[in-house]
């Protein structure tokens, strides 16, 4: 008998065909649509520059899920220093880039499911092979997100996250 990969939402009672194992934001929290016309700003699927003052890359906070070979992931943005951003950009399409030392950054995505706030948590971005987003490692603190990254979560927690995102009370953007 096959296991149903979906879930029935405890909030609306509807059955959803699959349980998402990750969510992603489109831009760092400081990004604003008015910046699209700013020649000193840019937003791509992986990098962002705001007024040539703030530099961001997108990566994944991966959280082990008990009973699942696949981790749960948050697609988030972290700010980097100008120097580290330039170094990461120079090596973005370079084979072997995964041997780069990690880049220190600040989490620039607010994940509203967590309290206290996630914005400005300390991170390290670990570059991976070309085509893979960097793995974002949170500083090992007692923040609930950092604890989840270290200790893992259950499939029930993944369902809780899915319900919060589905019903718009997760605080994330896009």
Mean pLDDT: 92
Apparent shape: globular
Radius of gyration: 17 Å
Q: Tell me the total number of β-strands.
A: 10
**Could you say how many structural domains there are in total?**
1
Number of H/I helices:
3
Sheet-strand content, in percent, reads 25-35%
* Termini separation: 36 Å
Q: Tell me the series of helices and strands, N- to C-terminal.
A: EEEEEEEHEEEHH
Structural class: alpha+beta
Characterize the biggest β-sheet. Answer: 8 strands, mixed
Helical amount among residues, as a percent range? 10-25%
Uncertain residue segments: none
Task: Lay out the secondary structure.
Blueprint: E1 7-8, E2 15-16, E3 22-24, E4 42-43, E5 47-50, E6 54-63, E7 72-80, H1 82-90, E8 103-107, E9 122-126, E10 135-138, H2 144-151, H3 155-166
Parallel strand pairs: 3-7
Antiparallel strand pairs: 1-2, 4-5, 5-6, 6-7, 7-8, 8-9, 9-10
């Amino acid at each position: 008998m096959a296991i149903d990969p979906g879930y029935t939402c405890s909030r609306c009672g509807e059955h959803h065909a699959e349980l998402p194992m990750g969510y992603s934001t489109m831009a760092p929290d400081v990004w604003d649509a008015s910046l699209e016309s700013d020649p000193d700003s840019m937003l791509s699927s992986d990098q962002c520059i705001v007024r040539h003052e703030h530099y961001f890359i997108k990566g994944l906070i991966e959280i082990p899920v008990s009973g699942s070979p696949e981790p749960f992931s948050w697609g988030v943005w972290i700010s980097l220093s100008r120097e580290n951003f330039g170094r990461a950009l120079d090596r973005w399409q370079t084979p072997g880039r995964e041997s780069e030392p990690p880049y220190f950054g600040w989490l620039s995505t607010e994940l509203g499911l967590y309290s206290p706030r996630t914005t400005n948590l300390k991170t390290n971005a670990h570059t991976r092979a070309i085509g893979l987003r960097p793995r974002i490692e949170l500083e090992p603190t007692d923040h609930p997100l950092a604890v989840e990254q270290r200790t893992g979560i259950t499939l029930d927690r993944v369902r809780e996250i899915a319900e919060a995102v589905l019903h718009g009370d997760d605080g994330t953007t896009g």
